[in-house]
Design goal:
This protein has one domain: Sodium/glucose cotransporter, CATH 1.20.1730.10. The protein is 79% helix and 0% strand. The model has no long low-confidence stretch (mean pLDDT 85). With 494 residues, the chain is mainly alpha-helical. The chain contains 21 helices and no strands. It is a multi-pass membrane protein. This is Sodium/proline symporter.
């Protein structure tokens, strides 16, 4: 038997379980509403863990530990920014979005919500927002496929090209079959697996290095600056890392979880569960990268793969420190992180193409069954394009994620926030905010001005555009204001 046999068996059992959940969800998917939002039936636990798992992706177990391993604790500013942003997202957006989407023609997607919220009869908001979703999510999907490929490449010695397809196929299958319910149910299992791996791994790494004191001594011997939270920090650098938290307000795959909750009352307990899960997972990921420095300092002969690509630090430590069967479970957690995010991204892209293009412009009176099957075909289309983008083996997970995260955060974040908090916002304000946010991110990324993360100027300029263009044009209609007030009152009374 190959040394990888236990890991392979564990992977196959895990993948089979996820696909089985997909087929069970198939039986509960009666119409397009079920396929896209699960019939708005998610309880607080599933809402919380699904939002967390769909958020974190392979970045949590590969990108973040790799950044900490390379640069030390100073890279944890990203984690601090994410925690603050996620908490504000739960507090300001989650409950309100659940209520407002229902009051705006029971909107199933963000483009659908924007169209009805601002009474956009020209449907230009629907078109622009759907295009933004497709462009940035295809890049985001590619990041998940790269992470999956790295996992299969490192674990089973496959070529990058073969690993690319192996990592993507299982996710595509259960998303294709089961839709939103499959994605949400599997997210709950995957979130549990991720937190188990991220609590256990740092403990075992510390044990292998002899405890905290020897680990700290080893890290200090490598570079004392690894302990410095402000190492090489500039004001712009710290702001750029903290600004990752701004991205939460505009991520369609996370916002879809809020829209799918069974009621606003579920949100308080969902927020507590979600934030606890998130803090423990981020702390564990930082611990893996940080204590991994100590382990490979003591065992330099084993550090080859990590030196070549620091994003493999969790993978290599799992293979080195654990029984192959346990390692298989831990490595399945990376696959869980990849699959959970990739699946809901594929689904959001599918919903944008199906609801916002196919149904809106081509087949207004399409049957529910037809829409579900078109949605499934769109999952396949986006997956193939994302695989093509991911085919370059030089791609890095964190780089792809940061670009897509900034794109959504700047294009949609201010629009979502203002639409839920300000009844004076207009369609022209929403359109200007969306376009200015997206264009700023693309231009700033290309020019790299000031070394500032592109989400910062994108978010600020989009917010200004919303206010200016809402003030310049005609005021919101009486019906828009009334819907806003009724939804806000329902939210406050819940």
């Amino acid at each position: 038997m190959s040394v990888n046999t236990p890991t392979l068996i564990t992977f196959l059992i895990y993948i089979a379980a996820m696909v089985l959940i997909g087929f069970l969800a198939w039986r509960s998917t009666k119409n397009f509403d079920d396929y896209i939002l699960g019939g708005r039936s998610l309880g607080s636990v599933v809402t919380a863990l699904s939002a967390g798992a769909s958020d974190m992706s392979g970045w949590l177990l590969m990108g973040l530990p790799g950044a900490i391993f390379l640069a030390g604790i100073s890279e944890s500013w990203i984690a601090i920014g994410l925690i603050a942003g996620a908490w504000l997202n739960w507090l300001l957006v989650a409950g309100r979005l659940r209520v407002h989407t229902e009051h705006n023609n029971n909107a199933l997607t963000l483009p659908d919500y924007f169209t009805h919220r601002f009474e956009d009869h020209s449907r230009v908001l629907r078109i622009f927002s759907a295009i933004i979703i497709l462009v940035f999510f295809t890049i985001y999907c590619a990041s998940g496929i790269v992470a999956g490929a790295r996992l299969f490449e490192s674990t089973f010695g496959l070529s990058y090209g073969t690993a690319l397809w192996a990592g993507a196929l299982a996710t595509i299958l259960y998303t294709f079959v089961g839709g939103f319910l499959a994605v949400s149910w599997t997210d709950t299992v995957q979130a549990t697996l991720m937190i188990f791996a991220l609590i256990l791994a740092p403990v075992m790494i510390l044990n292998a290095t002899g405890g905290l004191e020897p680990a700290f001594a080893a890290i200090e011997s490598v570079n004392p600056a690894h302990f410095d939270l402000f190492k090489g920090a500039t004001f712009v650098g710290v702001i750029s890392l903290l600004a990752w938290g701004l991205g939460y307000f505009g991520q369609p795959h996370i916002l879809a979880r809020f829209m799918a909750a069974d009621s606003v009352k579920s949100m308080r307990s969902a927020r507590r569960i979600g934030m606890t899960w998130m803090i423990l997972c981020l702390a564990g990921a930082v611990g893996v990268g940080f204590f991994g420095i100590a382990y490979f300092a003591a065992h330099p002969e084993q550090a080859g793969a990590v030196t070549e690509n620091p994003e493999r630090v969790f993978i290599e430590l799992a293979k080195l420190l654990f029984n192959p069967w346990v390692a298989g479970v831990l490595l399945s957690a990376i696959l869980a992180a990849v699959m959970s995010t990739l699946s809901c991204q594929l689904l959001v892209c599918s919903s944008a193409l199906t609801e916002d293009f196919y149904k809106a412009f081509l087949r207004k009176h399409a049957s529910q069954k037809e829409l579900v099957w078109v949605g499934r075909l769109m999952v396949l289309l986006i997956a193939v394009i994302a695989i093509a983008i991911a085919s370059n083996p030089e791609n890095r997970v964190l780089g792809l994620v940061s670009y897509a995260w900034a794109g959504f955060g700047a294009a949609f974040g201010p629009v979502v926030l203002f639409s839920l908090l300000w009844k004076g916002m207009t369609r022209n304000g929403a359109l200007a905010g969306m376009i200015v946010g997206a264009v700023t991110v693309v231009v700033w990324k290309q020019l790299g001005w000031l070394g500032l993360y592109e989400i910062v100027p994108g978010f600020i300029l989009a917010s200004l555009a919303i206010v200016v263009f809402s003030r310049l044009g005609s005021a919101p209609s009486a019906s828009m204001k009334q819907r806003f007030e009724v939804a806000e009152q329902e939210y406050r009374n819940s």
